[in-house]
Amino acid sequence: MIIPVDIVNNTVLPLPLSEIAESITAIELELTDESLINPGRIQRIILSDDLVFIAHSENILVFNRNGKFIRSIGSKGQGPGEYISLWNMTIDETNRRLFVNAREKIICYDWQGKVLMESSFSQFNGTNTIEDINYIHNELLLINLSRGKEDEIGIFDHIAVYRLNDNLQTIDSCTILKFYASAIHGFSSSANYILLSDSTVYLHYPFSTAFPPDMASVVREREPKLALRDTLYRFENNQLIPELKLKFKKDGMDSEGYMFIRLSSVYRSSRYIFALYLNYNESLNDFGIYNHHTFCYDTKTGKGYNILSDRYTGIGGYTDDIHHIEHVYIRPFQTNTEMFYYWHTHMNQDDREEPNPTLYIGTLKK
Q: The pTM is what?
């Protein structure tokens, strides 16, 4: 499937969520001394049948579905069950286990916060970084970036998806990329690269060699011309199978054949396709940075929405016209892309302290 992305006729008007959402519900997250949330440090939110897990930079906060605070799991440190930095998490709902990605190691807790096991993940000598993690079909899937491996050609970086068993031992792997040049990655620890939709596993890794114009003259002398990672893949039988391609004008290349599009994420539900990207051919905004673009495509109607948006300027890709909240960013749930979430902090004039953000959960139209 080829999806056209119009990168010329953009609009700054956010897309009303009522256009794509069947419903949106709100959960007010209780504020206590132990459950204080810094909205800027939320990495990922996971929903189970009865609980809400919020991966914060400091720990995992657990609430019930009514927003009442239950407990905190994990803490910073260098001892067993502790981490230097918490990147993201996933859950095994059947066995009520929580897997935490702590960059170079995986920690498994039960839902009471007890450490069940942990494992350092090192496939190669050199630097290893776990960039995403998800528990799907009774297996732990993770994407790992290994830097500094060397063979007869030279030094290379290796990106692969790994399948792990219940003892955190590798069952199999599938290479996503192997490259011999230093390049820029569109990686974000809060993004989802492995997602489940209607029992199908989808994967998109935002590898990119896109450079802003002020850097291009410096790097073009030594950088190869690599293709834009514009394809969303199905992960089946330990293979990556192309599912759909985002078709940018001129394939996102400038007149010299170098990329000016940096694609950060692509995912889909049964009806909609979503993406986030940067366009380095545009002018800088008032903050001296490049704007993001939010893209949404309706496969049922064939209509695409391409919204100029940026978290730094306060312009969001969507507006919640149901709850009257402007400029929001929606994120898919890991194991159900038919649902999405975002959070928003409501401040009243008489508030003496900032409340916890309210969590909004939406269900997409089919």
A: 0.90
Contacts for 71 with CB less than 8 Å, ≥ 6 apart: 62, 112, 113
SS3 label, residue 40: helix
Dihedral angle, C-alpha 361, 342, 268, 275, nearest 10 °: 160
Q: Give every strand in the sheet of 292-298, ordered side by side.
A: 261-268, 272-279, 292-298, 303-309
Confidence of residue 219 (pLDDT cuts 50, 70, 90): very low
The sign of the torsion formed by the CA atoms of 366, 242, 304, 309 equals: positive
CA nearest neighbour of 193 among 181, 179, 176 = 176
List, as one string, the DSSP characters of 57-111: SS-EEEEETT--EEEEE-EESSSTTEES---EEEEETTTTEEEEE-SSEEEEEET
What per-residue confidence (pLDDT) applies to 91? 96
| pLDDT tens per residue, range 148-194 | 778 888 888 888 999 999 889 999 999 998 877 655 455 566 678 99
The topology (CATH level 3) of 2-364 is Methylamine Dehydrogenase; Chain H (2.130.10)
Contacts of 23 (CB under 8 A, 6+ apart): 362, 363
Token pair 């991966």: residue: 55
The yes-or-no verdict on residue 122 having pLDDT over 60 is yes
β-bridge mates for residue 107, sequence order: 100, 118
Compute the average pLDDT of residues 344-364.
Answer: 88
In the predicted model, is pLDDT for residue 108 greater than 50?
Answer: yes
Q: Are 339 and 4 in contact (CB under 8 A)?
A: no
Q: Given the structure tokens 């391609």, which residue do they identify?
A: 245
